Amino acid sequence: AMFLGDYSEAVGVMLFYRVGEYLQERAVGSSRRSVSELMSLRPEAVHVKKAGAVDDVPPSEVLPGSLIEVRPGERVPLDGVVTGGCSVLDTSAMTGESLPVEAGSGSSVLAGYINGQGVLEVRTERDWRHSALARVQELVEAASGRKSPLEGRLSSFSRIYTPLVISIAALVFLLYPLVTGGSWADGLFRALVLLVISCPCALVLSIPLGFFAGIGRAARQGILLKGSNYLDALRKVKTVVFDKTGTLTEGVFSVDEVLPRDGVSPEELLYWAAHAELSASHPLGRSIVKAYEGTLFPDRVAELVEVTGGGVSARVEGRPVLVGKKSFLQEAGVRTEEGEDRGVTVYAALDGILLGCLRLSDRVKPGAERAVRKLRELGVSNLVMLTGDSSSAGTEVGLKLGMDEVFCGLMPAGKLEHVRRLKPETGLLAFVGDGMNDAPSLAAVDIGIAMGGVGSDTALQAADVVVMKGDPLAVPLGMM
Ligand SMILES: [Mg+2]
After folding, report:
1. DSSP structure class, residue 70
2. 46-50 and 53-57 as β-strands: parallel, antiparallel, unpaired?
3. Distance 97 CA to ligand 1 centre (A)
4. What sign does the dihedral 379-462-215-150 (CA atoms) show?
5. Centroid of ligand 1 to alpha carbon of 88 (angstroms)
6. If you measure from the C-alpha of residue 437 to the centroid of ligand 1, how many angstroms do you get, rounded to a whole number?
7. Do both 137 and 166 map to the same domain?
8. Is 55 part of the annotated catalytic residue set?
9. What sign does the dihedral 134-384-91-41 (CA atoms) show?
10. pLDDT in tens, the chain (480 residues)
11. Domain assignment of residue 357, yes or no
12. Are residues 308 and 322 in the same domain?
């Protein structure tokens, strides 16, 4: 255009293009900022015990065999064995296991577990570079290195259009003088005119503007995109793979069924069980307390004893109450009925006589079922659930939601293998997950969607799209 003397045209094209790109970048930038705001970027420190004093040092500087302290609510920083204290660990981010795991002296713990209530003293067994957490991060890096970037709409258009227009212009330049007998300068002039008029100014501005609006709208619905190309790519998804715990289910147990024996009312059963568990630290106990709707009387409870891996015993109104596993009650001489337990069942006894049992389950998120239905309506042909949970309850959840396939008991590398195998011939594959154990898969697939509600930072980092409130319904919403 400059050569032809059409300066306004030249400036206009570049300006349109720049403005469009700028707006699109701004939308993506604000999405990315929101994602990093979701991450708790506190610097991690290990509390190392040395000669009676506690020193805070970065994980990379702790040698194997050091004695470290893990406080309530903190993440276990290094792999090791518990040497003191007892607590309940949330291992769901690493293993996908939704049931909390009890830890006492001698239990081995992995980096990435989250400590519940008590202070744990841990002797480290490996340095940071060889810890379970570092291995997951290595998997993430390797997986994202192998991923081919998705093309944006504009670049896939220009991949064909640009060479086409340039070759036509070249042909005009070469053929014009030969065919019409005009001068070479004439040919050049005509070729340049062709280039100027074929520049798609409107397209160059409208596509980025469209994305600008789309990304902004998605962000208002709690869907954060790390790149504008994912907006387009979401529509081409044909296979969606879900993680279970924390993604489709809440990851928190709640009382589902109250099953008293004959002659006992459900309220009575809950009253005794909730009071025995009133000051217990186990998460299942807290769920039972939450399920009791009446008034709680802390002064009626005495002599609380928690037995790791068993249950609790306490005196409520001066009468002995036992709450826990069937085996725990049987050891105390309580007669219980025979038969297999379905899911997680907690038994309660008063004065040595069984009151009944409570059934607890990891509740499915309210939007999960509708999300699956909507995805089918949008033409997703294959829905799969992968979980680290090995229990039969896991399989049940998946089948109830209408998944095509369910795979249980998977470690992070196992999940990764499955998503690689599931990659469809046509269309794209999206993986939806929340935990550290999902991060390698999130990084490897075409579109990784992380649940931002309770998810881990590693997952948020590895993902391409983040759903802020962790609502599964946002997945089909983003595809519309
Ligand atoms: Mg999970």
Report:
1. E
2. antiparallel
3. 8
4. negative
5. 18
6. 7
7. no
8. no
9. positive
10. 888 888 888 888 888 888 888 888 888 888 888 877 776 545 578 999 888 788 888 888 889 999 999 988 888 888 999 998 888 888 887 777 778 888 888 989 988 888 887 889 999 998 888 888 888 888 888 877 776 667 777 777 888 988 999 999 999 999 988 888 888 888 999 999 998 888 877 777 788 888 888 888 888 888 988 888 888 889 889 999 999 888 898 878 889 889 898 888 999 999 999 999 988 778 888 889 999 988 888 888 888 888 877 889 999 999 999 999 888 988 888 888 776 666 788 999 999 899 999 988 888 888 899 999 999 999 998 999 998 877 677 788 888 898 999 998 888 888 999 999 998 888 899 999 988 888 899 999 999 999 876 667 788 888 899 998 888 898 998 887
11. yes
12. yes
DSSP result, 233-267: HGGGEEEEEEESBTTTEEEEEEEEEEEEPTT--HH
Quote the number of domains for the chain: 4
Distance 139 CA to ligand 1 centre (A): 17
Q: Check which CATH number belongs to the domain holding 116 and give it.
A: 2.70.150.10
The residue annotated as part of the active site, out of 79, 243, 389, 464, is 243
34 is a domain residue = yes
Q: Which residue is it, tokens 């009253």?
A: 271
CA of 278 to the centre of ligand 1 (A): 29
Determine contact, residues 91/146, Cβ cutoff 8 Å: no
